[in-house]
Batch of 2 targets.
Target 1
Amino acid sequence: TISLYAFQHCDSLEDILLPNSLLYVGGAAFYDCPSVKQLNIGTELIYMAEDAFVLANNLQRISYNARNCHTEYLGNFDYPRNIGFSSDAYCRLDIGDSVRIIPENLFFRDNGLRGKVIIPSSVKYIAQSAFYRTGIDTLVFSMGLDSIGESAFQDCNNISVPIVLPASLKRVGPDAFYGNYSYSSPIVLPDGIEYI
């Protein structure tokens, strides 16, 4: 366990490697660590509390490998903002092929998260507001995804290429792609979808 505020305002941290054995990251554990450039999250992380890596403004690469992580709002702040991350730098995201869930609000309003995001075939569920208002410009979905939660990709206005949803997808929650006005072509829905 990494406790609440454990490394808050730590200016000297540059690379963070969270081992596979780590289960819990507390609220604001790495809040305002401006020198962090790379972050690797291990496979066994179960819970990440609010603002864990917020204001890591020079974060350039996230390797996210947590299989079944859930986010947790403990009420330490006025409202759940960025549950996981926020950065001002151009930040690349690599999602590991063991990840099954992208948790709620994980990248909520992370404007630094940009470029191409590939959702691997291991991911079954993308939770509510997981990528809400991020700067990603390309989304690639793999077969295996079953459900996309409410507002998961809402207001991702930099997406400029068609989004092709996989044939395995059964459910798309309300407002999942709402407000994405820069699309150059429509979202391609699979034939077997059951709920929109």
Target 2
Amino acid sequence: VLRIVREKSPRFAAMRTRIERAKADVVGAGVLPNPRFTYGHYQLASPRNTMYEGNVQEEVTLEVPVLIAGQRGARVAAAEKRVEATEAEIEAEFAKLTREVWGLFVKLLAGRARVTILEQAAQDMEYLRSIVTSRKIAGLASSYDVLRIGVEAKSVETQLENARSELTGTAGKLGTLLGLPGWRPEAVGNFAPLGI
């Protein structure tokens, strides 16, 4: 499951892009700023009320940024620190994602165990219903006993259907969290520590 989280999860893929973006910022921080050249051409309607003579004014501007000593290195160092901070944030978010996936997996294991127990209980209730029905036919049980065991059997069947529905919902949540929305995983294994 943890391998699938790293390989398929859209949340983890989005996390990785943040690291790549932070690494690109390191490269951008080391680039020297470009000089800027601008040219303006103005056609004056009237030369009156201006300090220029003529009807045309042209302007050329060249801006060359001059970095303060150590500024570029400081920008690169700050960008590298942001990469480290982003990586730490991603690890924390991955741990949270892993905990969510593991929680759903454990819930899937528990749900599977619950369904197995309730299936056995439903079989036992059917067996008891047949015994009580046989006893009623033999005159050793009343209609109330048959009705009562029938209600209890239906109660167990309802619990079983609810457990199956919850198991399907948990499997769907796990599949969606892993980036495989159509996948309905089956939990196989025993309860054990995560080991990470």
